[in-house]
Amino acid sequence: MKRMTSFSALDIINRILDEHVQEGDHCIDATAGRGFDTLHLCRLVGDSGHVTAFDIQQEAVDSTKALLAEHGVAHRAQVMLKSHSEMEQHFAPESISLITFNFGWLPKGDHSINTRKETSIAAIEQGLRLLKNGGIMTLIIYYGRDTGFEERDAILEYLPTLDNRKFTVVEMPFVNRTNCPPIPIVIIKDNC
């Protein structure tokens, strides 16, 4: 196993994705953004797997589709112009191996358009029902400037309420970084 030399929130989550996702898995990128997580997942699931990505911004959907096409993996994914809070309409319960979220705003996009606590918590709840036993959900909470604090607080208050007989929740805050560092979180659906 390669030694971890970088410790950004994204590096930590990508390491978890690398260790968990297998060829043939079905995964969800709940917040497609610029498409980098969708691309990463497409590479991991291979031709026998599938990734569905959601985003509410056409710019994000277009960026993600272009990136996947550029890397020759567009056939492994479906990119939907829909809220992550609508994901449960498209999948059977306990059918998904991994779901990943990046809460906040579109990188290099309009910061006034950002995820909101109401739809984000609804999406987490739906995702937990969609996960297979042993499945994993990853979250990165980006907040700062004038946005994201209310959502951050609501998610961090919600997660401890999850049944500890069904889920293990690991929060990995950076305790000595300034300027609102992102918060990586992993939720494991225990075999129940």
Protein traits:
5 helices, 7-stranded mixed sheet, alpha/beta, single chain, 192 residues
Structure description:
- The chain is an alpha/beta fold and 192 residues long.
- 31% of the residues lie in helices and 24% in strands.
- The protein contains 5 helices and 7 strands; from the N terminus they run H-E-H-E-H-E-E-H-E-H-E-E.
- It has helices spanning 9-20, 36-45, 58-70, 117-130, 149-158, and strands at residues 26-29, 50-55, 77-81, 96-103, 131-141, 167-171, 183-189.
- A 7-stranded mixed β-sheet has the order 3-2-1-4-5-7-6.
- Helix 4 packs parallel to helix 5.
- The longest helix has 14 residues, at 117-130.
- The chain is globular.
- The chain starts with 8 loop residues before the first helix and ends with a strand.
- The mean pLDDT is 93.
Q: Could you say which overall geometry the principal axes of the C-alpha atoms support?
A: globular
Total count of strands = 7
- Helix amount: 25-40%
Name the strands of the widest sheet in spatial order.
Answer: 3-2-1-4-5-7-6
Main β sheet profile: 7 strands, mixed
Low-confidence stretches: none
Q: Ends: how far apart?
A: 30 Å
| Mean pLDDT over all positions | 93
Indicate the proportion of strand residues.
15-25%
